[in-house]
């Protein structure tokens, strides 16, 4: 059994982590933006091994994501446990705003959202004080009017969790540790040894991101920052750092020792072109207390690749695997998709299901992946610098331009699609690149003519920032359609937004998608990382 913490504890697109302890276990949630199911929930006994046990937002009655771009939706959740109940508070930008949901068990079911009227801003948190008062903590633009972009403040107000009503007056308590701070965000309040502590991030969620701390003897008093803020950042390491964008943290105590989860990104690629395809991932670092202040990763001041349970930095062993393991192969032999599979905006069982044809995932063609509408897509996160992803698909074409295949997706405008499409009476294999403009066909080959049904294996092979796209009748007889294709367009640095790359399957109808005439059955999907590098 593993006895060390291996970073990142959640590899791949798992940003804005928050965690809590309940009944001897630790629970962690992350942002999911417009992917559904949303807000993944992980469980661990010792902070070493993590298992996904569900998703907070897992049925369409909870929230509507119609029309939302991939980087909108759900921002920065906080999970807390209080008096036998789990609470998850979050922001749905552009629609509901700030809300919370409640559950008896972290795996759910979670309630429908309870909106918080008057709670402007983003990144909400809850604090349960020992006098029975519950506090809402959030961020908002400076009330007198922002003097510059990112001139926000952290504010508090009492809240009634029975009704979701804010009580009394709100009060701004903190505008960041540094002069002219931008984007103070991700705030969490704790009471430790009679003192209130505020952990927050600032500097924006890019290269200048940083974790800072303030404290106060009373929650609504005068907060003072630690003189040596920030307490965790990699911004001073420059663009060559193996880990960037460090910030957005939460604290937890395990067996008398304190730990901090945070987000960070791992760039890779050629010198001068190192970018972050996996977006922002979740890391864990040790914390000690000196003179009433937290000291993070005290031996080096940086995120290390591994830590002993006593908090000392150690080297990973070659046999060490990721702290969170997902199955390499899904053969779709259950009625419901596993909790790690994602769809965009909604997962309509009429278009995406494992029940209609037992043992396969059936995708009916819907709207294009470039749209903000009903997209028929099932994807999972990229979790390593190099990987292989493949699927076996059975296409049942109906109309001209019916299309389906395997996709490497960063957002609606940046993706690669290895697809089969019907052109008149001919089925064509294509590699399509979307890179911010019109789609570009990089390679294509005629597969067959005179029939509308074909079975094929499709595969993507990633070697760092180079992609190869392959096809064949089975896995032992694969041919290359294109190779040495630039993967850097799948990075947040190029594509923008807040998400990371996902890989999976899609189907687009050439005609009226509401008629459900075209479908593709996926017999299995395989994803495996082909390297164990920690950083590049």
Q: Tell me the overall shape.
A: globular
Work out the oligomeric state of the chains in this entry: single chain
Overall pLDDT = 95
Strand content bin = over 45%
Q: Strand count, sense and closure of the main sheet? A: 8 strands, antiparallel
Rg, rounded, reads: 24 Å
Distance between the termini: 27 Å
Kindly describe this structure.
This protein has 536 residues and is mainly beta. It is 1% helix and 49% strand. The chain contains one helix and 39 strands. Strands 25, 27, 28, 30, 35, 36, 37 and 39 form an eight-stranded antiparallel sheet that branches. The longest helix has 4 residues, at 492-495. The chain starts with a strand and ends in a 7-residue tail after the last strand.
Helix/strand layout:
Layout: E1 4-6, E2 18-22, E3 25-29, E4 35-36, E5 38-44, E6 51-57, E7 74-82, E8 85-92, E9 97-103, E10 114-115, E11 122-128, E12 134-141, E13 152-160, E14 165-174, E15 185-192, E16 195-202, E17 210-216, E18 224-225, E19 244-254, E20 257-265, E21 281-290, E22 293-296, E23 306-308, E24 313-314, E25 329-330, E26 343-344, E27 352-353, E28 361-364, E29 376-381, E30 387-396, E31 403-411, E32 414-423, E33 426-435, E34 440-449, E35 453-463, E36 466-472, E37 479-486, H1 492-495, E38 502-508, E39 519-529
Antiparallel strand pairs: 1-23, 2-3, 3-5, 4-26, 5-6, 7-8, 8-9, 9-10, 11-12, 12-13, 13-14, 15-16, 16-17, 17-18, 19-20, 20-21, 21-22, 23-24, 25-39, 27-28, 28-39, 29-38, 30-35, 30-39, 31-32, 31-38, 32-33, 33-34, 35-36, 36-37
């Amino acid at each position: 059994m593993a006895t060390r913490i291996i970073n990142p504890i959640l590899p791949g697109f798992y940003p804005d982590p928050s965690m809590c302890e309940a009944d001897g276990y630790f629970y962690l949630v992350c942002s999911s933006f417009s992917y559904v199911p949303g807000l993944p929930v992980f469980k661990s006994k010792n902070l070493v091994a993590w298992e996904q046990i569900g998703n907070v937002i897992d049925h369409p009655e909870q929230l509507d994501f119609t029309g939302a771009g991939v980087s909108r939706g759900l921002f920065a959740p906080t999970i807390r446990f209080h008096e036998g109940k789990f609470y998850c508070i979050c922001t749905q930008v552009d629609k509901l705003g700030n809300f919370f949901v409640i559950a008896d068990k972290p795996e759910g079911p979670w309630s429908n959202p309870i909106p918080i009227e008057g709670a402007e801003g983003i990144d909400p948190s809850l604090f349960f004080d020992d006098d029975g008062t519950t506090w809402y903590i959030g961020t908002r633009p400076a009330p007198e009017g922002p003097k510059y972009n990112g001139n926000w403040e952290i504010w508090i107000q009492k809240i009634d969790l029975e009704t979701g009503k804010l009580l009394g007056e709100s009060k701004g308590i903190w505008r960041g540790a540094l002069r002219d701070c931008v984007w103070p965000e991700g705030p969490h309040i704790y009471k430790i040894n009679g003192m209130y502590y505020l952990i927050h991030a600032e500097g924006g969620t890019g290269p200048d991101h940083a974790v800072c701390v303030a404290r106060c003897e009373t929650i609504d008093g005068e907060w003072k920052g630690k003189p040596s803020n920030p307490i965790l950042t990699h911004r001073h390491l420059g663009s060559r750092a193996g880990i960037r964008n460090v910030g957005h943290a939460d604290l937890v105590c395990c067996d008398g020792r304190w730990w901090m989860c945070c987000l960070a990104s791992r760039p890779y690629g050629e010198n001068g072109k190192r970018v972050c395809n996996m977006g922002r991932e979740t890391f864990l670092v040790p914390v000690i207390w000196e003179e009433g202040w937290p000291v993070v990763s005290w031996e080096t001041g940086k995120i290390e690749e591994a830590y002993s349970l006593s908090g000392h930095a150690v080297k990973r062993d070659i046999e060490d695997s990721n702290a969170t393991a997902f199955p390499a192969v899904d053969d779709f032999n259950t009625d419901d998709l596993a909790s790690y599979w994602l769809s965009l905006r909604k997962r309509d069982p009429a278009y995406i299901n494992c029940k209609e044809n037992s043992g396969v995932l059936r995708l009916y063609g819907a709207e294009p992946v470039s749209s903000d509408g009903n997209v028929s897509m099932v994807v999972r996160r990229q979790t390593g610098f190099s990987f292989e992803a493949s699927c076996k698909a059975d296409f049942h074409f109906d109309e001209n331009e019916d299309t389906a295949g395997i996709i490497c997706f960063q957002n609606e405008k940046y993706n690669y699609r290895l697809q089969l499409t019907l052109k008149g009476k001919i089925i064509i294999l294509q590699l399509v690149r979307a890179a911010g403009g019109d789609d570009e066909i990089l390679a294509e080959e005629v597969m067959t003519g005179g029939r509308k049904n074909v079975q094929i294996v499709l595969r993507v092979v990633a070697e760092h920032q180079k992609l190869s796209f392959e096809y064949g009748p089975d896995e032992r007889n694969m041919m290359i359609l294109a190779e040495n294709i630039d993967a850097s367009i799948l990075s947040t640095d190029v594509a923008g937004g807040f998400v990371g790359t996902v890989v999976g399957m899609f189907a687009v109808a050439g005609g009226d998608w509401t008629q459900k005439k075209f479908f593709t059955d996926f017999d299995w999907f395989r994803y495996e990382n082909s390297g164990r590098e920690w950083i590049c």
